[in-house]
Amino acid sequence: MADFHQNGNIAQFHNLRSRPVEELIYEIETYAQTRKISLVLPCLYSELEGPAMGNIIDELSKVSYLHRVIIGLDRADEAQFRRARDFFARLPQDHVVLWNDSPRMQALNDKLVEMGLAPNEQGKGKNMWTCMGYLISCADTAVMALHDCDIVTYKRDLLDRLVYPVVNPNFRYQLSKGYYPRIGDGKLNGRVTRLLVSPLLIALKKVVGDRDYIDYLRAFRYPLSGEFALRTSLLPDLRIPSDWGLEIGVLSEVWRNLGRHSVCQVEIADAYDHKHQQVSEEDAATGLNRMSMDICKAIFRKLAADGTVFTPNVFRALKATYYRVALDLVEFYDNDAKMNGLTIDRHREEKTIELFANNIMEAGHVFLDKPNETPFVPNWSRVNAADAGIVSELRAAVAADCEEYTPVTF
Question: Keywords for this entry (predicted)?
Fold first, then answer.
């Protein structure tokens, strides 16, 4: 993916393979002396037993500039929390495991529920939000990075390249978004970006006209990537969705708060592969079926907030336009894959496009029926305004869990 193209909407940083990574690391280490960097790893306990996490920890153990690693652990019982602490003990950096299912954390969540400030559902969004609150309570970090915990192709230079644009004090970027080609096992992956987001944004521009927000999202080569870094001054005012609209929601929040010139995207890997979700055609509550609905609603909500008027006729036109654009793009992807010795299942992809087209209409109906519905978790500024002691309680709960439940090797 080495090129030097700039799209004019957001800054793009490429890997031109012209600089030794050691030079980049040396610069980051220098900046990190006065601009501390923390890494957030939201994970499920099951990922500790998967093929990726062990290698990720081995690679992170080589990173000298990290001030702290915060691991948000979901779906773990007491024994699994103890084992997780042992699993992460080989990290040389200061690190902490937030056991999101502990009695103390559940009690804190119950308090937030009573105040009307709790996340609506379990998942990566809530996990990330809790880790953000913990990091805010530490009050000692300038840059927060976050990446997924199921990356089977992980190398430490992914993190190096991700944090560089926001830790460099000579750059003005507040958020750095990672991009990469999604390939693995001889196949072209990244189905939701390729088959839903890209054609949907093209169709929206045709149907509702030019919108700066649409151009902004279209500028991202991989808007659904789970890898980003940002300056921590953004954290208190960042509202994030608790559903599958998380990545789009973060980009939308930065657009709302800062504008395009504070955002960049950076090429962080030559190849990237991780756990693949099932399409789940028969179950609208899981897999890519659910993901596509949440992403569509996130985009529709943001456009409506900026003044776009949606009607049933608009959504009908959008569905038809999307379907035609998506089929055209499938041919491009098929040709691209063949030229590079890769494959896609074209029949399967066209069936997935049919599902996504129907979900665009369904998401439109939900939006029109419930225009005030919001999946956003209240930002930490609002939580602090409601109860200034919550972040301290969160930090105390984490510390008490770590003191009470000592690591156990199984």
Answer: Glycosyltransferase, Transferase
